[in-house]
Design goal:
CATH superfamily of chain B: Periplasmic binding protein-like II
CATH topology of chain B: D-Maltodextrin-Binding Protein, domain 2
Strand content of chain B: 5-15%
Distance between the termini of chain B: 57 Å
CATH class of the largest domain in chain A: Mainly Beta
Number of strands of chain B: 6
Number of strands of chain A: 18
CATH topology of the largest domain in chain A: Porin
CATH architecture of the largest domain in chain A: Beta Barrel
Largest sheet of chain A: 16 strands, antiparallel, barrel
Helix content of chain B: 25-40%
Number of helices of chain A: 4
Largest interface: A-B, 58 and 55 residues
Strand content of chain A: 35-45%
Number of domains of chain B: 1
Shape of chain A: globular
Oligomer: heterodimer
Order of helices and strands of chain B: HEEHEHHEHEEH
Number of domains of chain A: 2
Distance between the termini of chain A: 16 Å
Radius of gyration of chain B: 19 Å
Order of helices and strands of chain A: HHEEHEEEEEHEEEEEEEEEEE
Shape of chain B: globular
Number of helices of chain B: 6
Radius of gyration of chain A: 32 Å
Chain lengths: ~450, ~180
């Protein structure tokens, strides 16, 4: 991105001109006035002498002020002229644009310039046409968008970042989206203030995607980044019926662990967790899943993740995470929630292979334990602008599961192809086969145009 | 869905997998290592003179350029400088260090900025003079130039303990590809 230095040069020139005017014109003029004032005063027959003295004192003080101001301006001018290049304006998000001049990083002590914006904004969205061969009234189908064939406006995502200083960064995702009732709404999907001490210690507070497994932090609210038309239903968003606490509000620590070529990283999170009432169907009508403002209980959700990116196998990441929370869907009912996840992914520009497995354990107080296993594997390879892909996913919840009895069994393959006609547009065509327990399987097709702007 | 269909799909994927390129490409075409390359063929890795770094292993250099390492040892944030698209020096860095083309490079940074892993996109400059000025003025900067274009306003770091153009220096280009 090109930034013109012309306004800065003009400002410097104006400052210099003012300085010169103050120094060369104003000063003699005022001195002349001071010298002339007694003469003028002498001609005023009735002017009191104490007034002359007061005027002189005022003028002398004014001269002192102006001389001081001139000195300040000259010093500022000299400092600006000898300093390194002007402070860097915010960089473009991407793609990187050529810059005509080198620019220095903003200093920590630098004051706020009200004429500059610190924001960088990038947008993402998609439009999908989809349909399936079964529309039935079972709760399971209602929960998983067994809608008639429809054109659907996807999420319009404004990704906003800002460098507040060298160590502080702001990041947010503002999403406009329509729901199954065709109403538009706005969600602040992510909002994080991040402090980076070094590569080993980063602290973030706000609303974030929980580091459960891999997919949830690798892909956020944009289908454009994803190979497929949508997320695995294991990682589906809460308001779309997903079983996981995808979002969380709280604090997190993350960074590298000194481990040489093993490339270990850690994430530790503490937050409000998911509102347990949001699990109960119909979707989204009882409670908002993400506890943005108040937690339903004082117990906080903890998550710890550890993963490795070994130097020896570029593109490989393996790791696991453990999440725990206590849910209180009704007093005095308490349900312990533990989510254990493991992943192994291999990603290179031309090839990806994602594998994840997890188990969600719900432990009602004094009751039986419910384990819900799930996972997926996804593989794709790029051939020029085309990327065919395959995904098989599986999620199996007990019919008597206390928090999401409508999920039951969902399993099946997806097959599709992604075509990138330009760097900014992706077209995807996907077929889904989903087998359900106690209901006919669903065959679905989706055609999606995703883009970034 | 019949199991046979699933099996066929898996078989198709296995065939696709078999054509995956090898894990580590050695040297790209036209960039074969030479015995003692001329100064103009070598790419010097530059940092600010105040930077305490003297040497980077090639693995560390990759992490820095990929944004996997965001801070120097003194805690200062790393600012990566790239020459603009089309420059042979940039092409060499993309091929040798990133192992990506321009499109993948843009997609990579866009994705990792989106996930929050990377602080900002690399600064892209048009000329060697601009790179020199930038690196000499910005304390956390790292960039690259032909050895002949570097001067004393910046520090040239060793890569795997080897200075540019010394024997076994890895970041160099064949004269044909440099023209």
């Amino acid at each position: 991105m090109k930034y013109s230095t012309l306004p800065q040069i003009r400002a410097l020139f104006a400052m210099k001109l003012i300085g010169r005017m103050c120094g060369r014109l104003m000063l003699p003029l005022l001195l002349g006035m001071v010298v002339g004032t007694p003469l003028l005063c002498a001609q005023q027959i009735n002017a009191p002498s104490d007034l002359n003295q007061q005027t002189s004192q005022l003028l002398l003080r004014r001269i002192d002020q102006l001389e001081g101001r001139v000195t300040e301006l000259e010093a500022a001018l000299a400092k600006t002229a000898t300093a390194a290049p002007s402070p860097a304006p915010p960089q473009a998000a991407l793609p990187p644009q050529p810059q005509t001049e080198p620019q220095a990083q903003p200093a920590e002590s630098q004051g706020m310039d009200m004429n500059k914006t610190l924001l960088r904004i990038r947008g993402f969205s998609d439009i999908t046409f989809h349909g399936n061969d079964h529309i039935h009234d079972s709760p399971q189908c209602q929960a998983y968008t067994c809608f008639p064939s429809s054109f659907t406006i996807g999420q319009v995502n404004l990704f906003v970042t800002s460098d507040l200083s060298e160590r502080f960064k702001f990041l947010s995702e503002i999403v406009f989206e329509s729901d199954e009732f065709n109403n538009f709404g706005v969600d602040l999907e992510r909002m994080q203030l991040q402090y980076s001490q070094n590569d080993y210690l980063n602290i973030s507070v706000g609303r974030y995607h929980t580091a459960i497994g891999y997919y949830n932090t690798a892909y956020h609210h944009s289908t454009w980044f994803q190979t497929t038309t949508g997320r695995p239903f294991l990682f589906e968003f809460e308001d779309k019926g997903g079983p996981l606490p995808i979002h969380n509000v709280g604090a997190s620590l993350f960074g590298r662990i000194p481990s040489g070529a093993v490339g270990l990283h850690y994430v530790v999170e503490i937050g409000n967790g998911r509102d347990s009432r949001s699990y109960v169907p119909p979707l989204g009508q009882n409670a908002t899943a993400v506890q943005n403002y108040v937690d339903e209980n004082s117990h906080k959700a903890f998550n710890v993740a550890l993963f490795a990116r070994p130097d020896s196998i570029r593109g490989l990441q393996v790791g696991f995470s453990a999440y725990h929370d206590v849910l209180t869907p009704g007093v005095p009912v308490r349900i312990g929630e533990t989510i254990l996840a493991a992943h192994a992914v291999f990603i290179r520009p031309n090839f990806e292979w994602l594998n994840e497995a997890l188990v969600i354990r719900h432990t009602p107080q004094g009751g039986r334990v419910f384990d819900t296993p799930g996972g997926y594997t996804q593989i794709s390879k790029r051939f020029g602008s085309y990327r065919p892909y395959f995904r098989y996913q599986y999620l199996n919840a007990a019919d008597s599961e206390p928090l999401f009895p409508d999920i039951r069994l969902r399993a099946g393959p997806s097959l599709g192809v992604r075509y990138d006609p330009t760097d900014f547009v992706a077209l995807k065509f996907q077929y889904d086969y989903t087998s359900l327990r106690a209901n006919p399987a669903i065959n679905g097709l989706a055609l999606q145009a995703g883009f970034t702007f | 869905m019949p199991r046979v269909t699933i099996a066929l799909l898996m078989l198709t994927m296995a065939v696709m997998l078999s054509s995956v390129p090898p894990a580590r490409t050695s040297q790209p075409a036209g960039l074969e290592p030479q015995g003692n390359p001329a100064a103009d063929e070598c790419l010097a890795i530059l940092v600010n003179r105040s930077n305490p770094v003297e040497n980077l292993s090639f693995a560390e250099l990759r992490k820095v350029f990929l944004g996997e390492q965001n801070h120097w040892s003194d805690g200062r944030r790393i600012t990566l400088v790239m020459l603009e698209s089309g420059k042979p020096e940039r092409q060499l860095v993309l091929t040798l260090i990133y192992r990506m083309d321009d499109k993948d490079f843009n997609a990579y940074f866009l994705h990792h900025i989106f996930t929050g892993d990377i602080h900002a996109a690399p600064t892209t400059l048009a000329t060697s003079t601009e790179v020199l000025k930038f690196v000499s003025n910005v304390q956390g900067a790292i960039g690259y130039l032909r050895t002949t274009a570097a001067d004393e306003s910046v520090k040239v770091v060793r890569v795997d303990s080897v200075l540019p153009c010394d024997k076994d220096y890895s970041i160099r280009m064949h004269p044909k590809s440099a023209k």
